[in-house]
Write a structure and sequence with these properties.
The C terminus is likely disordered. Helix 1 packs across helix 2. By secondary structure, the protein is mainly α.
Length: 142
């Protein structure tokens, strides 16, 4: 078995800030940077969200600020919340339609019979469900 990868020693928040400065990251407000690094963590913020701002094992591109990286993190966090809320609506809708369809076709407990779920025509069932939904949407628009 190979040798274990050497990991860097832990750094205090002040050491993290000094490390970022040594990589030419501009930190306009150190108190703000300390708060953010305490709340989000160095690795979550810097390792994930600064990838596009510096080459691997290199210095940051000229003019890149800590605040820009935080803004990217916050944009992503907000985008994720909005997106997941909408995805959840779609998931609930699809599950509801599948459950209703199977109840209509196979009875209320039809889901308990494996042959009802794993038929060769499962794609056909899903197609009918989506076709019904699309038809309802088109009728409402007219």
């Amino acid at each position: 078995m190979g040798e274990l990868k050497q990991h860097p020693l832990p750094m205090t928040i002040d050491e993290q800030i000094e490390n970022l400065k040594s990589l030419d990251l501009i930190i306009e407000n150190e108190e703000y940077a300390k708060k953010i690094l305490n709340d989000i963590s160095y690795f979550r913020l810097i390792k994930a969200y600064s990838l596009g701002f510096k080459p691997k094992n290199g210095k940051y591109e000229e003019g890149v600020t800590f605040e820009q990286i935080v803004e990217l993190y916050l944009f992503n966090a907000n985008f994720r919340q909005v997106t997941f809320a909408e995805i959840e609506k779609i998931e609930v809708n699809v599950r509801c339609r599948i459950a209703n369809y199977f109840a209509e076709v196979y009875g209320v407990l039809g889901y308990m019979e494996p042959q009802n779920l794993w038929t060769k025509n499962i794609i056909g069932h899903l197609w009918l469900i989506s076709k019904r939904r699309f038809g309802e949407t088109q009728r409402r628009r007219l």
